[in-house]
Amino acid sequence: MIKAILIFNNHGKPRLIRFYQYFSEDMQQQIIRETFHLVSKRDDNVCNFLEGGSLIGGSDYKLIYRHYATLYFVFCVDSSESELGILDLIQVFVETLDKCFENVCELDLIFHMDKVHYILQEVVMGGMVLETNMNEIVAQVEVQNRMEKSEGGLSAAPARAVSAVKNMNLPEIPRNINIGDINIKVPSLSPF
Amino acid sequence: MSPSVPLQEMIRAIRSARTQCEERGVIQRECAAIRAQFRQTDNGGRSHNLAKLLYVHMLGYPAHFGQMECVRMIASPRYSEKRVGYLGAMMLLDEKQDASLLITNSIKNDLSHSNQYVQSLALCTLACMGSAEMCRDLAPEIDRLLRSSNSYIKKKAALCAVHIVRKVHELGELFVPSARSLLSEKNHGVLHGAVVLITELCERSPETLERFRKAVPDLVQIMKGLVISGYSPDHDVAGVSDPFLQVRILRLLRILGRNNEAASDAMNDLLAQVATNTDSTKTVGNAVLYETVLSVLDIKSESGLRVLAVNILGRFLLNNDRNIRYIAMTSLQKIVSTDHNAVQRHRGTIVDCLKDQDASVKRRALELSLALVSASNIRSMMKELLIFLSSCPPELRAHAASGIFNAAERYAPSKRWHIDTILHVLTTAGGDVRDETVPNLIQLITNTSELHCYTVHKLYRALLTDISQQPLVQVACWCIGEYGDLLLKGECQETEAVQVTEDDVLDALEIVLQSHMSTPTTRGFALTATMKLSTRITDNVDRIRSIVSIYGSCIDVELQQRAVEYNALFKKYDHMRAAVLERMPVIQKNSLGQTNGELSEEPIKESQPGKVKQEEMALPQQPAGQVCDLLDLLGGSQEPLQPSSSVGGSASAQLTAAPASAGGDLLDLLGGFEPTPLVPAPTVTVYEKNGVTLTLICERQSESGLTVTLTASNSTDSDISSFTLQAAVPKSVQLQMRAPSRDSLPAHGGAKLTQLVVLNNPNKVNLKMRIRVSYTCQGSVVQDTVQVDSFPGL
């Protein structure tokens, strides 16, 4: 079982925290600080497994982490999970983020924290691995995002609106509408 | 307005705050605004308020006022609001909060919603924070969803079922049939969830495990499909087809095949195939191989397969990738007890990993090395472990030190080597060893009488170099006190001797006494050692007197007490000083013997606490014993010289109280001898009263050695508890009482109690023994004494 998923940057600022077991807010912040402390001490060429965190509980728990540029992705797991499997899972998660955000960077995680949560919900549920197929995850996330957008109407922020229309699959607009004798020419719409 | 824009504005504002204080100000303003907006009932921007609150929560600020808002959002018909509401519920609520009960109904309704994404939100929330009551209510719903045709919902329902089973174990029965049918799914996500569910069910209940054993052929089939099938773009990760599912299935097979021949046979071929076909150049392949190896080693596999598995682990060990080495060592740890020889072959590589830079790898290597120590490789392993100890990271030191001690104790090839090893550890990592090391080492030293000279010289030299490591200093002081005369003699066979004068020795001890690095315990050791030296040296007794009298006004109560008592020894009882400070006898392991044969009230079951109590009592008990024996010489004057302090434990306090009374009684009783005529027969009944019988068998072991076996039985109608025996003998006879076989006597002679007493009578005096019996019967304590004057077979 995965006990917690933490993403923080090189200075220890949390970018995403998800606990699958109840901890009070103080405990949560303490765990983040302790984990950052342990993980930041590590060289880049040592192994990705860490033991010895005392707060998050017990001798059964390991920290499995991966360092990408400015971010640490840390999964805290117990012995029922395969360590190498979790390493691969982190990779799958990051690649999914990359697909969803188009060349994801730290700013994307900062400003779209809720979106990252929704993507994570498709990968890990209740502390257990749910789906590992990247395409499947991305497809589901897209559908849900579309549903949400359709409720709010097309009143998105300008940038979002542009990208939304760009991605829309516009069907072929007939240039000539023949209703009997009348020939109406429809002006061609330039994409905006 | 898009839901996220206000959130992004707030995030920008927070990030632009330059100090922590400014950030707090921004967040407080935002939180106040959010709280105000929550209080308004209808609000278009509810979802982004909650999103902002969750962001603030992540940064560590209190967000509990959002809980009710979450409940309201979940009940909203809009998908965007539901989504944020459920996310908020998972982050802010848990079963301990009252608000979580309110969402049960919403979850129930949403589980039957027409939109599958709403259903999935409800399932996700239930799986994350569902309490036991919620699980019980909603379990039938989940079971229904497990049978639906939508694979997206099925896989989520499967994991939700796992959570339910973890919360309420009895509900596992409910899910067994659906779980079984899910195994025939094609969708990998559903299969994955099904395998996790089945694993959980099997781990919880052995009957379910039995039922699922019949599914082994199906699982084998699925695995074969994954392994043999060609490239499938959907599930491929770096050339391996759905490694996550493979790993899960292998784990389930492991659980099903454990301790079961039939199931293991069915899997043998498959495991062999996976082990040989999987590409091990990438991490994914290694993950699958690793799981295969673990499964092979855990089930009843054939020996060829086991050899293959251990070889794969050996290859992992030599891999350049540290991750692989780490997990290889983790798995070797699991099998070191069962396949010890196989792991021994890789000992060299493991010992090399001790020198790795990576702290995690070092930790694993240490654990494994300690497990691999055996009688044949102890010397070489110990060398490596000692090198490791001098350079190891501080968090591993204590563990390494205690591991080394255990290994040395079990496999020491010679006493001298053992003592050397312990001294080496104390000099390198003295601050991290456990407290019982000091008494253990002292006991070891006294037991090797031939090495006393060598030991004391070595310790003296160590003391001169460094007095910061407290355990080492304590042992050194004790030895110098005991064997100071050997040190001063200046000759030693085993090591080159140092010419030491009495002044040098006293200087060294004084430095320890006065140093700010010495703990009070160490000072106590040093003071006692100085005192003991007063009988072993000839010239500087006055110096010792002055040192001791200085501490008579020391602030530390312990030291002051000792100093005052030693002063008294100098002034009033100078004639007894030699006897009191005589050399200690050899301390036996596992025996509770002291010279006056006292027993502690609680039967000491493990040897370790027995040894510890032994050591702590040794110092004060020796003088107490001597004093009691001296008492009968002096004919009854009560001595105030009862050292009531002890080196450590409180157990000795209660015991030192006892010798005082025993001494007093012995005085009276030894005064008047009434020789009881004893029947000279091999088994002698020495005491019979109130249904309690005590018999005695005496056997001669050697010229002056004798063993006496005391047997007690109870023929009354009620049980007897806390049965103890105490014995006293004339002064020149040495007595040791071994631990009794039990401490209670059941009624009607249900069981007998035996206790062995070892006597040594070098002067061949007339042997008499006074035995005191004490027990509790029907709530009242009974004490009686009997004297045995003649021993048959003597």
Could you give a quick summary of the protein structure above?
Chain A is of the alpha+beta class. Helix content of chain A is 42%, strand content 22%.
3D structure, described in words:
The complex is a heterodimer of chains A (192) and B (794). Chain A contains six helices and nine strands, in the order ββαβββαααββααββ. Chain A has 192 residues and is of the alpha+beta class. Chain A has one domain (1-148): Beta-Lactamase. In chain A, the strands form three sheets. A five-stranded antiparallel beta sheet of chain A has the order 2-1-5-4-3, sandwiched between helices. In chain A, helix 4 (113-123) crosses helix 5. Chain B is of the alpha+beta class and 794 residues long. In chain B, 61% of the residues lie in helices and 9% in strands. Chain B is built from 34 helices and ten strands. In chain B, the strands form three sheets. A five-stranded antiparallel beta sheet of chain B has the order 3-4-5-8-7, with no helix packed on it. Chain B has a three-stranded antiparallel beta sheet with strand order 6-9-10, with no helix packed on it. The N and C termini of chain B lie far apart (108 Å). Mean pLDDT of chain B is 79; it is low at 591-681. At the A-B interface, strand 2, helix 1, strand 3, helix 2 and helix 4 of A face helix 1, helix 3, helix 5, helix 7 and helix 9 of B.
